[in-house]
From TrEMBL, chain A:
Residues 155-272 form the VOC domain. The lineage of its organism: Bacteria, Pseudomonadati, Pseudomonadota, Alphaproteobacteria, Rhodobacterales. This is Glyoxalase. InterPro entries: Glyas_Bleomycin-R_OHBP_Dase, Glyas_Fos-R_dOase_dom, VOC_core. PROSITE patterns: VOC (PS51819).
TrEMBL record, chain B:
InterPro entries: Rieske_2Fe-2S (IPR017941), Rieske_2Fe-2S_sf (IPR036922). It comes from the Bacteria. The lineage of its organism: Bacteria, Pseudomonadati, Pseudomonadota, Alphaproteobacteria, Rhodobacterales. Keywords: 2Fe-2S, Iron, Iron-sulfur, Metal-binding. This is Rieske 2Fe-2S domain-containing protein. Residues 4-111 form the Rieske domain.
Length: 315, 123
């Protein structure tokens, strides 16, 4: 199954105007889909679709109040769509849409859609660093950072789900859709990547009671740690609420910074995630602060030493 | 009991919530909700995780879209404004920590000094 990963995540929100402002300030570009729906896209065209929660164009809501309505997966080609349709039709209803995409529910009732990916190929450099002992990545006179660094989300990276039955979900996504488990946080759940994506994870499942089922967070890849810090600093200065970070995860090695949102999920900036192939053997560690990060920092106002002691020098 | 000035009742628009730091370096804000003459105050600390986590998605954005409940915008939990009880979401069955408000004759509100040192949720 040549699945690449989420092209879009669709939400039905109760504060449409607040959500639109939030997504734009996060760094995503609005594309109006129709009179009542908007796609907020990253540089490669992946992103978040929002509508008011009463909009009849939305797939049905989960039993919980979670605002996630659908995960739209991008796949490599039409043959993959046909293969998924054949596999899923064995035991569930699959709807074929006019544009060739298919829709169905997974084993726990999450709404899924699969389409030939609409993501655009990006051609832009990663953050470049210089270090003794290694060839310089930046040319002489090429600056590492300026005040106007763009720091825009490049691509929808991953989605994290609260799931009441991990075993059923893992079986469905690995055996039926060809996902691979890359690592496991015992007590929480597994990280997974689809066959046509070498990122450490596009999905992470967290074991929860049924009344929590839904999306926990979603993340966008940035061009590097500096872009992540700059984007998070700007977002904080606009009044948005940091939840966790900045820091660097252990599993996946990605830098992270999470923020609260009016979509009822966290939005994460991430950067510099590990890549894996089928030779990788999944690790396992007990979930907790030690396994979750190499280090954790917290935002503060800009400050600099200077000015001398209050009241002037003594003596 | 020592108390700290928080704000004036008119600093909170009708039907709205705002968050105030009881001291500049306090670990958590105090949320005040105003409905008519009624004021309710809670620590800005969602009881989902140990220690509590901040609930707004933007400064002072503590209510859900309809303005009917206090909401934690980490995972969408909804809380009854009258009681602080979680009615939907991860912390179902738990409560926000209520803060006692004192109002003087001019409408200035103050809170017990210990809330400035309180990061954790208390039952």
């Amino acid at each position: 199954m040549r699945i690449i990963g989420p092209d879009y995540l669709v939400f039905g929100v109760d504060d449409l105007e607040g959500s639109r402002t939030y997504l734009q300030d996060f760094g995503l570009k609005p594309v109006q889909l129709d009179a009542t729906g908007w796609l907020y896209e990253a540089l490669d065209g992946t992103g978040v679709v929002i509508r008011h929660r009463d909009d009849p164009k939305l797939p049905p809501a989960l039993q919980t109040k979670n605002m996630l309505r659908q995960q739209v997966f991008g796949v490599e080609d039409a043959a993959t769509i046909d293969a998924i349709e054949a596999e899923m039709s064995r035991d569930r209803r699959v709807t074929r849409l006019a544009d060739g995409a298919i829709e169905f529910q997974d084993v726990l009732g999450f709404e899924l859609r699969f389409q030939v990916t609409r993501r655009r190929t990006l051609n832009m450099p990663a953050e470049k660093i210089n270090a003794p002992g290694a060839p310089a990545q930046r040319a002489p006179n090429e600056l590492g950072v300026t005040d106007d660094v763009p720091a825009l989300p490049r691509s929808l990276s991953h989605v994290v789900l609260f799931v009441p039955d991990i075993d059923k979900m893992v079986e469905f996504y690995t055996r039926r859709l060809g996902f691979v488990i890359t690592d496991i946080l015992t007590g929480a759940g597994p990280f997974l990547r689809p066959a046509a994506n070498d990122d450490h994870h596009t999905h992470f499942f967290i074991r929860t009671p049924a009344y929590m089922q839904g999306c926990e967070h979603l993340a966008f890849h940035m061009g590097g740690p500096t872009e992540l810090m700059v984007a998070g600093d700007r977002f904080t200065r606009k009044g948005y609420q940091s939840f966790w970070g900045p820091g660097r995860h252990k599993f996946g090695s990605n830098w992270f910074w999470y923020f609260n949102s009016p979509l009822g999920v966290h939005f994460e900036y991430d950067a510099d995630m590990d890549k894996h192939d089928d030779a990788w053997v999944a690790r396992e560690a007990p979930n907790g602060p030690e396994a979750s990060q190499v280090f954790l920092l917290q935002w503060r106002e800009k400050w600099a030493p200077g000015g001398g002691p209050e009241g002037g020098a003594k003596g | 009991m020592a108390s700290l000035p928080l704000c004036h009742r008119d600093d909170i628009p009708e039907g709205a919530a705002r968050g105030f730091l009881p001291l500049p370096d306090a670990p958590r804000r105090v949320i005040v909700v105003r409905r008519g003459t009624r004021l309710d105050a809670y620590m800005d600390a969602c009881p989902h995780y140990t220690g509590g986590t901040p609930m707004a998605w933007r400064r002072d954005a503590y209510l859900n879209g309809e303005g009917t409940h206090l909401a934690c915008h980490a995972h969408g939990a909804l809380f009854d404004i009258d009681t602080g009880a979680c009615v939907s979401g991860p912390c179902l069955g738990r409560k926000l920590t209520r803060v006692a408000l004192t109002e003087d004759q001019a409408g200035y509100l103050s809170v017990p000094a210990h809330v400035a040192g309180r990061a954790a949720r208390e039952e």
